[in-house]
Amino acid sequence: MYDIIIIGGGPAGLTAGLYAGRSKLKTLIIEKAVAGGQISGTAFVENYPGSIPEATGMGLAERVLEQAEEFCEIKYANVKAVELEGKVKKVVTDEGEFEAKVIIISTGASHRKLGAPGEEEFANKGVSYCATCDGPFFTGLDIFVVGGGDSALEEANYLTKFGKSVTIIHRRDEFRASGVVVDKIKSNPKIKLVLDSVVKEIKGNKEAEALLVENVKTGEIKELKSDDNSPIGVFIFVGYIPQTDIFEGKIEMNHGYILTDEDMKTNVEGVFAIGDTRDKKVRQMVTAAGDGCTAAVLANRYLEGAKW
User: Fold this and answer.
1) What is the pLDDT of residues 157-208, one digit of tens each?
2) Do strands 208-215 and 221-225 pair parallel, antiparallel, or not at all (unpaired)?
3) Which residues, other chains included, contact 252 with Cβ-Cβ below 8 Å and sequence gap of 6+?
4) Is residue 130 annotated as a catalytic residue, yes or no?
5) In which band, very low, low, confident or very high, does the pLDDT at 47 lie, cut at 50, 70 and 90?
6) How far is CA 45 from the centre of its chain?
7) Is 134 a known active-site residue?
8) Which one of the listed residues 130, 142, 276, 293 is annotated catalytic?
């Protein structure tokens, strides 16, 4: 029996584990893939207080993981089901069943897909959702980045290290990214912009070779490809989908995001939700860490007898 089980090992979950473990609570973090969450796939982290210049997302994730491992147990497993009612909660995984008095949900979000023809066909054959992971594979090739937020523009800038050129395709005429990031993009001579446009299809033979793009204002469709018909890289950054399917019907949600109060408490006693999993306005690494700290501190108080 654990005091706390944290489902998900991203920045929010690892921070919660660090604080819970330091409070001498028997804590288990269950992570299905790579601890660190979305930050692991980020090229460089410039907006986290105290991060060193040129700090990589993977490097920062590994450091946070090392800190958490000093104070709590981490198990890699897929969560199949949860039982949240009652004083004792149960988490069923492919590595066994675990019980705890408190559950902290930190399952994060996954990359949203375009849904365009060819996207699935050319996954790992030109189509990618991680610049840090796959950028080097496209050295000397033309790269296309789909999206207009901070992630899309930051990764586009990073990809100029490898690509012959980088073209950003965005469905609006203005970017949603912060001004500093937009300025950096506009001043980079290797970056081209295709605005007011959406990807209709990803084409190729064995690898991605071209994109069919439609202008949303004029309806004009054009093909984007390399001048010499070489394979291309297509990096997609069009948002995220909350990973909360296993909690459906067990906890209050809004469009898949878990509803909490400012204390990270859900409508189910003894269950907290943190990070990108919960319904909130700002989703950044620093806010995820804050969520994790809040949940762990208040979980400790709850276990000491505080009312829900």
Assistant:
1) 999 999 999 999 999 999 988 899 999 999 999 999 999 999 999 999 999 9
2) antiparallel
3) 258, 259, 266, 267
4) yes
5) low
6) 14
7) yes
8) 130
What length does the chain have? Answer: 308
Tokens of residue 37, six digits: 């969450």
- Residue 72 annotated as catalytic: no
Average pLDDT of span 61-75: 89
Tens digit of each residue's pLDDT (9 = 90 or more) over 229-286: 999 999 999 988 999 999 999 999 999 999 999 999 999 999 999 999 999 877 777 8
Amino acid type, 6: I
Residue with tokens 């204002």: 217
Say if CB 151 and CB 237 are below 8 A apart.
yes
Q: 3, 134, 142, 150: which is the annotated catalytic residue?
A: 134
d(CA 194, CA 168): 6
* Residue spans of beta strands (DSSP E) within the chain: 2-7, 27-31, 73-76, 79-83, 89-93, 96-105, 109-111, 127-128, 142-146, 165-169, 191-194, 197-204, 208-215, 221-225, 233-236, 240-242, 253-254, 257-258, 271-273
Both tokens of 130, joined, read: 């991680």
Question: In Å, what is the CA distance from 293 to each residue of 59, 91, 298?
Answer: 21, 22, 9
Ordered structural domains, the chain, with CATH = 2-111+240-304 (3.50.50.60), 127-236 (3.50.50.60)
pTM metric for this prediction: 0.76
How far apart (Å, rounded) are the C-alpha atoms in residues 248 and 254? 11
